[in-house]
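As described in the Methods, two query proteins were run sequentially through the folding procedure within a single session, without resetting any intermediate state between them. The first query and its resulting structure tokens are shown here.
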Amino acid sequence: MRDAVIVDAVRTPVGKGKPGGGLAGIHPVDLHAHAIRELVTRTGIDPVLIDDVIGGAVGQIGEQSADTTRWAALAAGLPESVPAVTVDRQCGSSQQAIAFAAANVISGVNDVVIASGVESMSTVPIGSQTAGRDPFGLGVAQRYPEGLVPQGISAELIAAKWGLSREQLDAFAAESHRRAAQAWADGKFDAEVAPLAGLRTDETIRPGTTVDVLAGLRPAFRAPQWERRFPDLGWHVTAGNSSPINDGAAATLVTSSEIAAKLGLRPRARIHSLAVAGDDPIFMLTGVIPATEKVLARAGLTIADIDVFEVNEAFSSVVLAWLAETGADPAKVNVNGGAIAIGHPLGGSGARIATTMLSVLEQTGGRYGLQTMCEAGGQANAMIIERLG
């Protein structure tokens, strides 16, 4: 059976959302195209050889509608003969794109695939795809008669269930900013980022963030309707210990070892194992725990075998609960900071953290990296890669 390898990965800087974000004025198709174009340039792949472009996007409406990945591929200059498709597994969309690319390569359906993702949250605001409509229908309403909840409430429920204090959430967030700022200062992001529109670094990193600064922020999701339904919540989740609103894109080139050798390409990592899991859609963001267990079992590895982890920081409580359940070493998790600092451009984040994880493995000499992302609806992706070379 064939394998699947990552030849290269690249991302844009992550811009802050409107107003004033450095990437806010760029159409999402052009934002996505920049990552794809840079990937082709860096690898030197003949674009005619690309069998498909699989891209993730969450807000598939307006400027990100109509199979936005197809238009990004054309805007990037790929031949018209190269097809493209856009997938939606919510925040894990571009991680799912990598999984689909790997599956297609391993099965022999494709030889060379770009797996990528984008989100311009400045252009397509979060939640705008539902446009005030009911996306769930009667069957879901009957199964969950008390109603589903926003992600912020899920983050509060997680904090309460795992007994996480406001101080713990804020301390985790402050450390994310510290690590990300230090990584930029040390040049650790330089190779993975393709500057765009004069923006060279991630915009939402705040080097001076401290627990004392974060302590002054009010709970972001506290409201009478939720207080009545959940009277025992501590209301610890704030804008400071949550991921911000962002714009960004990332892209990876996936092929097999055999095809890479024929094309003279040097793979950077092998896609070792993949998994996806579902969990309670009320707690929503806890799927990273069973997804991690599932991918480790599939790989025949233990948590101690993993050298680097990327656990998407949608909220501090998500990663802290994951740490409590898995027993992973916090020093190996989001080594160069995470989404609370770097940002979370929804559909682009899975490919973004894959790009960063690959860089960290090479910087530290680690062998295995595991990434996992919580997703709306109570799902999560998990992927283990093995550094080559």
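Immediately afterward, the second query was submitted; its sequence and tokens are:
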Amino acid sequence: MPQFHSLKVKNTTQNTPSSVTVSFDIPQELKNEFVFQAGQYITLKKTLNGSELRRAYSICSTSGSGELQIGIKKVTDGRFSSYANDELKEGDTLEVHSPEGAFTLKPNPSASRNIAAFAAGSGITPVMSIMKTLLEEEPNSNFVLVYGNKSVSETMFHNEIVALTEQYPDRLNVYFVYSQEQKENSLFGRIERSTVNYITKNKHKDQAFDTFYLCGPEEMIQTVSENLKENGIDEDRIKFELFTSSADEPAPAVSTEGATSIKVIVDDEEISFEMKKSDRILDAVLAEKIDAPYSCQGGICSSCIARVTEGKAEMVKNQILTDGEVAEGLILTCQSHAVTDSITIDYDDV
């Protein structure tokens, strides 16, 4: 299983008043560990005020650039994002996990396709990598970006996106959407059903899109996804990645009273212990000081996926795994309760 590695910060650049772009130095001996696909993310680990924090941030650079860059937007009460924006500087060291994630684009230089993306706020970060990769490596393909923010000043990568439209005027169409200011040649409001219809049924009604990439808050993703499916887009052509999730979580559908005997397999080691069924599996594993993979702990990344090889678990929320993956025994351990008296989960077999 890939491990964390100490990387030095190459530089930090102010992106907007509330966001920064962070670049890392990759030593030659770690180059292979940090090969990535457009759209993937890395997990950062840092101890602040005695607490270990782990946060996942999407890569915004392209693999062909030779750079490993991420965008970090400062959020209210965000301990790590505040540190990254206010204190992180060139020469500082962070523990960085090798790239992960399935919200990806695999470029094909001979392809001729149309790709569209709907992004809001910091949801632009993986889309930047996907968009730039397609434009650079697929000369016969086109990209449409719909990007929502409060204002121009809060729009991450605004100048870079405008420069890309000038560099690829025949292949890139960008629609900025602002909810708190009206600007010429932009849309006013939020990304909603009317926005999707305007793009797919008006501006690009004659284009057949091969894939849609959605990234941002859960409400936006649900709205866009539902509208696309109502308009006849197959679900397998819609890829999404959440950057924020709803706080409301349903109760488990089965009883979580009592205890279970759990066996955990990670890094070729087996550890057994007793846990309460009412506890989430990842919480119980971490309480035992087991170095299991995790990042967001909110069910919006895929770092904590494991396979149930004996027994059964129920997830209170699943916005990542497909029905087929769940049928194969995969679970998000941060969202799962054991519901049998014994269970074995394997972090290595994923």
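The radius of gyration is 21 Å. We note this only descriptively and draw no conclusion about the first query from it.
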